[in-house]
Amino acid sequence: MGLSASQARLLSITARLSDNELHSQQIANSKVRLADKTQEASQEYLDSLNATKLVFTTYNSDGGTIQNPLTAGLMYQYADMKNQYGISNTSGQLLVSATDAMNFENSANVSEFVSKYGVELVDNPKYTAALEAIYGENYGQYFDANDKYGWNTTIDGFTSGDLSTIKQLVTKDPKDLTEADGQTVLNAIQKWTNSFKTNGVEDPNALSGSFGAYVDELLNFTPSFPKEEDYTEEIQTGGSQDLANKFIDASSGCYNAAMRTSSTCYLHVLAHLLDLSAGDLTESKYGSPAVPTDYERVYTTTTGNHTVTITDNNINGSTIQSTGYSEDMSEVSEFICNPDNNVMAASDPDDTTTESSPELYKLLSNYKFVNGEKVLKTFKEKVVDLFYVVQNRASFKDPSITYDELKPYLKNFQAELAGSLTTRFDEAKYQSDVNAWKNSVSAWLTRIENAKKDYTEDLDNIPAPEIPDPEDPKTEWYINLWHRMNGASDDKSTEGKNGTYYKQLDDNLLNSDTWLQFALEHGVVMLEQVRFVEEAEDDTGLEYSKWTATTYGSCSDITEVEDEVAIARAEAEYTKKLNEIEAKDKKYDNDLKKLDTEHNALQTEYDSVKSVIEKNVERSFKAFS
Fold this sequence. Notes:
Elements: H1 2-48, E1 52-59, E2 65-69, H2 72-76, E3 85-88, E4 94-96, H3 98-105, H4 110-115, E5 121-123, H5 125-135, H6 150-169, H7 179-198, H8 209-219, H9 228-233, H10 241-260, H11 263-272, H12 278-282, E6 298-300, E7 307-309, H13 312-315, H14 319-322, H15 326-337, H16 359-364, E8 367-370, E9 373-376, H17 379-392, H18 403-420, H19 427-460, E10 466-468, H20 473-486, H21 494-498, E11 502-504, H22 507-510, H23 513-521, E12 526-532, E13 545-550, E14 558-562, H24 564-623
Parallel strand pairs: 4-11
Antiparallel strand pairs: 1-2, 1-14, 3-4, 3-12, 5-10, 6-7, 8-9, 12-13
Helix pairs in contact: 1-24, 5-8, 6-7, 6-19, 8-19, 10-11, 10-15, 10-18, 11-17
């Protein structure tokens, strides 16, 4: 038993020695870590000695400077002799206080907004000037502050329908315009004039300002629509009533016979109108023998598809020749076939032929088509086309034409030629003037639209009747803020209502200098400053100011100073950490001493027990030997 107890004790002492050695190693490692912590604390302390903070300089009533830690709230607070700043986020929105956001949201215009900061409202001299520019000195007669667009609505009410009709007129082809269309314009203007008078404007022409300019454009369109008779009476062809009488007398025999039964008889009239006599067909004007091309006996229709040939039979044996009227008809034919006389077929406003019309109708028409344009034929061309139809009427199919159906065309031809021998309708000039009238109407409509636009824009931009007192130094500050949050308009804009240009800043961040400094240093926010300019940019609403992105380092009233509080706090923290480290180090030293004392005692006991065991073993061997 003695041997077993000693052995057990020896094992226990061995375990204790191992445990002490482990604790000693752990304490030694902890002491190493304490040294690292000491170095870390020293480095942190050294770093804190470089700590700085941003301060904002303001001025007291005596002109002395006051420096306070820089916060958004401090920058936004108005004070005399203070630069105006703002901070914006990465989306370009100005970050504002809850008070500024609430005041803005509860204001319909800049005047209401500024007045919420204690600025008194005074009469706006620009208000009266703007009304006079729109309506003249008697603006009170036409302007209702509660319904500033009232007159614009009234005018729209009695002009919109007529203007729509007139706009349709200018889309027509000039050939389709008539004097009735011209009268439509005049009727509309008269109606509008009466409507103005009904609505209390006794003399619409006496109005002034942009309103007067708008009314003046509506009521003072002067170009009149061309009258066809003016282009018949004023432009003489060089013919005469005597020449017309010769044609009527010379053609009557053949014409009357044609009206009874014989179409051949009217071919005599048409052949004589082509300036061909019996002598022309048997003897050349340029000598014998006769050559057909010398006297142009072959003619092509205006459609280009057919020719007509004048023979002796069309001249010889005619009533015109037998009654001695050949010379008279020769005078007529020479006149109408001379291109210098420009004898045109009669204008026919009821003509409906198109390029796709059947050839029969195009040959009977007074018009031809040249490069897609419908123009009047000359009378010579009219003669050739009619000659072909009379001579070849039986060949036309789908549609066809009988001789009785053809007679009205012959009758009209007689009347039209007789009229053209005394006067000529200048179709080209008439159509040119009709087109000029159409263009003048189109230009007039454009002037109306422009005048209305000017008038309504003036109404849109009428300034507020009252404005913040310009003598109050706070006025400009809060006007600048309004336009940064709202945009250019003095009235609440759509962007302002939607919060496009601003965002409310949390109160904790608003008053935190550490957050603002961090945000500025790391680009979380951008600093903006209102700076004076001689002329502000368009579409800002500002007159002599401009919000400009800047850096805090370039601002004279924002400076970076040594952060004494942070340094003192770091020093205290460093001292505290050193004291804690020293206390732990002392404790580790005491623990090591205790472990060392215990280790020595255990080692002595270990040696003693081991010696006892060795002696017992030795005695045991001797006893059994």
